[in-house]
Every structure is written in C-alpha cells, then in structure tokens.
Amino acid sequence: MQKTFYKKELLIKSPQKRKGTDNNKKDIEKIQSWLNLFAMQNPSSGTAASIDGDFGPATEKAVLNYQKFNALPQTGIVDQAVFALLSAPLKKAFEDAIAGNTLRELIVNTAKNHLKNHPFELVIKNQSNTGPWVRSYMDGNEGTDWFWCMGFVQAILDQAASIQGKNFKTLIPLTYSCDTVGTIGLQKKLLTRYQTARTNPSLIKPGDIFLLQKTPNDWVHTGIVTAIHGDIIETIEGNTNSDGSHNGNAVMNRIRNFKQSKIDFFSIEPLV
C-alpha cells in the first residue's frame, strides 16, 4: 500500500494517565479523539469529553467509563493495549481481509468494510475535517480546508489494488483534488460525461469513481460507485452527510439519481 499513514494512528508512545510524567499532548488528543468516536456509536458509554491534549479529570472519567463499558480493569490509564482496542475500527478498516475475484469487487468490498467501521471526522480546536480517520485518508493532513472525499476514494483504490499487487498511482497520481482526477480523466479519455452516462448507463460500472460536476472543468465531490439500478447509482463516499454534501462529516452509503444530477464517471478499467 502507498497510503500507510493510518499506521501512525494506531500507536501511542507510552501509557497516558492523569498527572503522568510521560504524558504526551498528541497521544492524549488521539485518545480523546477515539473516546469521542466511541461515544458516537455508543451514546450511553459516557466517553465524550473535550479534545484538548490535557489528561485531566474529565478525560480520566471518560477512560474509566470506557473501561467499565467494555468490562476492562478500571485503571484510568491508557496503555498500548487499551489504545489498540480504542483504535480497532481503523485497523479493521485498513487491514481486514477483503474478498473479491476482480479489482472492481475488491474496491466495492473494501469501501463497504470501511463503511461498517464508521469513519467520522471530528472538530478539534474549532477545525472541522480533523481526527484520525481524516488524517489516515489525507496522509496526515487535516483541518477545515482539507476536504477529504478524494483522500477516501484513493485510500480505497490503493488498498484494493494492493491486494492484487497493483499500484493505483499508475492510474491517477496521489491527490486530494477532484479537479485533478477529472482533468486526467479527460486527458486519458477515461471520463464519461453526465450527458453520455444518462443515455448509456452501461458505461457506468461498480468500482468506478463518480465526480459531481459544478462546471465542465470543476468537480466538487467524489465517491465510489457500488451499484447501478435504472436511473440511480449506489455509492460509498467520504466527507458527506445525509444531504449529499461535499463537506459533510462521515463515510456514508448514498443513493444518487445520476439522470437528475451532473455526475461524471471516471473509469478504473486501465487498472483492472
């Protein structure tokens, strides 16, 4: 795999605790981030607390609640073993075995595996588009200006292609820009414009990349096509929400009517 920053998100340098002599601000922020992500999936767990890099009484209580919720020894200390449990969804998303006989199947199943592990961004220091999932998709970058939908798409392509010993960068360069991929698609004649897709849906295939068009040379959002049914496509896309925003906060399975939207399609066929 080319995109391996996620591995850094699975580690802390030393055990972290209240008034610990080896406390590390970045590691504490990682712990606080995962406590909040856990609270999103388990609202009754009592693990949501500020993400400020300070292991104070609130963070200690959140850790104790996490340990109690998961039937762990209630120490209030987060060592690597506890942190591995906290960050397990990220490890599962990137390292679980993926089934599939073709690259297209591998891409769709990889995207589904990420989806079931609930990738979600956080707001840290008043900055959206932050947290361990965003950094993993964006190679360490995060913050309000770092829209991460293309980072997600390329992480999925990378992971799936690597299973077959292929390098996704033979198809498209490492980029976080929809415009870059759209422009390359035009240059390589791999981009099906929405007008053509509407009249010939057979050109759209699972595993292809959709690009939501603002103008003919400006694309604002992207995701993976997982299925085509009549006038609609099913997708898995990052940095979106239930309204289909290009700056949402989660990875979601969405349904889009491609005959009523300006959606272009980038074919992955050369990589297949």
Automatic annotation (TrEMBL):
Pfam families from the UniProt entry: CHAP, PG_binding_1
Occurrences of domain Peptidoglycan binding-like (ranges): 26-86
Protein name stated in the entry: CHAP domain-containing protein
Species, as recorded: Flavobacterium aquicola
Gene3D superfamilies the UniProt entry points to: PGBD-like superfamily/PGBD (1.10.101.10)
Taxonomic superkingdom: Bacteria
Peptidase C51 domain: residues covered: 146-239
Family matches, as InterPro entries: CHAP_dom (IPR007921), Peptidoglycan-bd-like (IPR002477), PGBD-like_sf (IPR036365), PGBDSf (IPR036366)
